[in-house]
Each structure stands twice: as C-alpha cells, then as structure tokens.
Input
Amino acid sequence: MKIVSIVGARPQFIKAAPVSRQLRRRHQEVLLHTGQHYDYGMSQIFFDELGIPLPDVNLGIGSASHGRQTGEMLVGIEAVLLDERPDWVLVYGDTNSTLAGALAAVKLHIPVAHVEAGLRSFNRRMPEEINRILTDHIADLLFCPMQTAVSNLAAEGIVAGVHNVGDVMYDAVLYNSALASTRSQILEQLEVQPGAYLLATLHRPRNTDDSGRLRAILEAFEIVGGTVIFPTHPRTRKAIAVQVQRVPSNVWMVEPVGYLDMLRLEQQAQAILTDSGGVQKEAYFFGVPCVTLREETEWVETVQLGWNRLVGADRDKIVAAVRDVRIPDEHPPLFGDGHAAERIVTLLE
Output
C-alpha cells in the first residue's frame, strides 16, 4: 500500500510517530508536512526527537487566516495527491491541515482515514470542532481513541468504518517517557525541583485573542504563587506583549520546548494548567492533576474521574482549583493499552 500521511502541527507530529513506525515496516508512506507549525521549536525538533523521517513534502504554508491557510493547503495537498495517487490518505486530529487533507482526498475519490476521530467539545465556536466534525463525516475509516468517541459518532449517524483502537498519543508516551527521564535536562537547566512548580500552556485563540481572558489567566497564575513554568507559543507571546505587557515575576515564560523536555516537565509538575487537548491527556497518562483553561473538554472522562477540572478563564476558579489540587483514588486505563498504531495499520490493510 501507498499511504500519504498529512501533518502540520506539533500534536500531529507526536500522533504520527508511532503510526509511521508501524506503517513503514510493510508499506510505503509519503509524509506531507503542510508547514502549519514551521519554526524549529514548534516543528523540526519533534521530527528529530521522535525519530520521524523527514517529510517527503513540505508545503511551507505557515501562518495565515483560517480561510487562506486552509485554501492554500488544499491546493498544495491536491497537487501532491494527483502526483502520488495513494491508496489511503491518513489525517490526524482537528487542525486546518486535517480538514484540508481530508477535503483534497475525498474530492479525488481517495479513501480517508482519520486518527483521533469522534471527539466533540460541543462548542462550534472552536475552529477545531468544525474541522473534526467535517473530517469525520467524509472519512472512510474512523480511528477513535476511546469509547465515548464511538458513541459521539453513532449519535451523528456514523457507524460504518468506526473502530475504537485506543490513543496513539498513549503509544507515544509509553515509547518516549523513559527516554525523557534519561535524556532531558530541562529541570536542571531551569533549576527547579520535581513537584515544586506548576506547568502552564496556553495557545487557543479564545484565550490569547481576548485581552480580558488573557489578563485574568495571568492574574490567577500570580495569585497561586510559586513557580509557574510557561513554555510560550509564539502567538501567545505576541498577544501578551501587545495586550497585557506585564508578566508576573513568578511566571517563567520560556521558549517552546521539545517533546522529551515537555514530557519530563509534565511528569514532575505539581499540577498542569492548560487549554491544550493533548496536554490534558498527557497529564492523565502521568497521573498529574490538570486544570483546564476552557469551559469544555473532549476528554470528559478525565473530568468525571476528578483528574481534570474545567475553569475557563475565571481567575477565582483557576486559583481555587490549583489550591484544591488532589490525587483521585481511581486511575483506570481510559486510553487503551499502547498498541493503537498496530491496530490502525492492521485496519488499513
């Protein structure tokens, strides 16, 4: 088989790594990078650390408005698919790269497989929600990370080609967490002790483009006190500089970190504050309490079990959640057994 795998953003690089390893044992994979994340800290370091082969094609699209970015990706991906004529197009997650890849393939009558299908926040103001809904409705194979995703698809009338395979991000964490413990020196470089800091990430436009929400979140970080390590997305850094200007002294804004460094920071954090779907999951994998800076999450089970609290951008709720951090009694295996990539390749075959 020939498979064109489409990635564009750092969470997709992580998800693609275990699947690519399995695919290339028996099949031809053409890896297409749209360039949605393009600088070294957001892109190339992940290929280096995860052992992903360099992309066969890099469209170099970069940042733009949603419409322009998706349109340019659609044009570029279509040209590659016409040249390669693959048996499958494989897309990941919920970015503009995901939707562009699925649209380009379906219009050329090439089967589409969607990894991490069936997730729903039920908030259609999120661009990611629109991307994942549309992709699911045109995909031929839908690889769900957990049973809730299967149920979400069934509620929308999608039952054919749906499989609960487990979460490929869990595959990646199992494969790389031991490596992170031995190779990452991030705690030593930052001069922090395990369990003596909070880890924060923030990148969603709803938080970064709204000065009121952004200011409230940073005020909460200041009130909770202690060290808050804050690997800062370039767009978030720019938004803070323009809209807030003042960063609390206990908030350490650092450059985006590589995958292994991020895993070690997550493993050793007292708690994690984030608006990232992937970081919420990784917090659960490591048994670290999570405070989610959104009003909803796709990972509802982590909330139901007490490992994750939804607080939005409410300053007082953020502070209360951090001060009330505790380790729940139960930690069931929500995300499979670490063999999702093998199941995906078998189903493609």
Observations:
- The first strand starts at residue 2 and ends at 7.
- Residues 66-84 form the longest helix (19 residues).
